[in-house]
Structure formats: C-alpha cells, structure tokens
Amino acid sequence: MRAGGFLHLLVSSSFLVACASGAAPAEEAQASASAVAPPPEPPPEPAGPEPVETGQACATATKECGGGSCTIKLKNDCEAPLTCDAFALLRCRTPTELVEAKGRERKTFPAKTTDDLIVTASCTEGDPVQTELTDLKCK
Asked: Three-class SS string for 26-80?
C-alpha cells in the first residue's frame, strides 16, 4: 500500500470513529448541566383541621393553614376572656431560593364563646408554597 493511501485510510477511520461516538463534547456538557436536580419541594400543606395547644385547660383549638393564612377555631370554655397571639410562617419560592415571611395576629375571646382567629403573611417576592402556625399563646 502506498503511503498516501495509508494516510487517507487512517484519516477516514478517525473521522468514522469521531462521528460514531454520538453527541459532541459541548452537547454532552450542556446536557449534564441542565440535568441538575431542582431543590426539593417543601412538604405539602395539611388537608384538614389539626388540634393546637392553647396553653389553657379550659380552651381548645384547631388550626387549618394554607395559601398564606392560618385559621384558628378557638372554643373558650373559661370563666374569663382569653387574649390569644398567633404567629404564622409562610415559605415563598423564587426562581432561585425559598424565602420566608411572618405574620402575627391578636384577638380576645369572651368567656364561654367560640370564634375564629385568622393570621396571615404575604410573600414580598415569589409564590407561596407552605404556611404553618408556629405558635399560639393564650392568656
């Protein structure tokens, strides 16, 4: 075989091997960069009312949170009025991170009554993804 023919065969074989490997290195790098998993989602919001501690034996309450607010249904069986402070935490998703917003509300419940206390928080940026009642203090 002539030297020129051997060189032509070698170049042709190298071209076939390069083409047979599939995606070009730049495409492989781009595919692996876009395959990075997004951060995990926070747990889903509760489906129904849940009991919450009031700190008073004569008062019972349930909470239901979602969409930036928590509704506390409180039954005051005490002989005196109760003033309750409720605190909520809202998690908001932006394109790059989770941010938090807080809310607080106070209400006085007359003796032997049942009523709602609603505490809200608003996202200053992003979309709401999780709302939770962080504390309820009644005196």
From this structure: HHHHHHHHHCCCCCCCCCCCCCCCEEECCCCCCEEEEEEEECCEEEEEEEECCCC
And the tokens for 31? 């595919």
**19-72 tens-digit pLDDT:** 444 444 455 545 444 455 555 555 555 568 999 999 999 999 999 999 999 999
Reported as type and span, the H/E element at residue 112 is none
The encoded tokens of residue 132 equal 């939770």
Alpha-carbon gap, residue 106 to 125, rounded angstroms = 25
Q: Indicate whether this model's pTM tops 0.90.
A: no
> Given strand 82-93, what is the order of strands in its sheet?
98-109, 82-93, 127-138
Residues 57, 16 share a domain: no
The answer to whether residue 41 is domain-embedded is no
Residue ranges making up the domain that contains 12: 3-34
Phi, psi for residue 28 in degrees, rounded to 5: -65, -40
Residue 11 resides in a domain: yes
Cα–Cα distance, 27 to 57 (Å, whole number): 66
Counting the structural domains of the chain, the total is 2
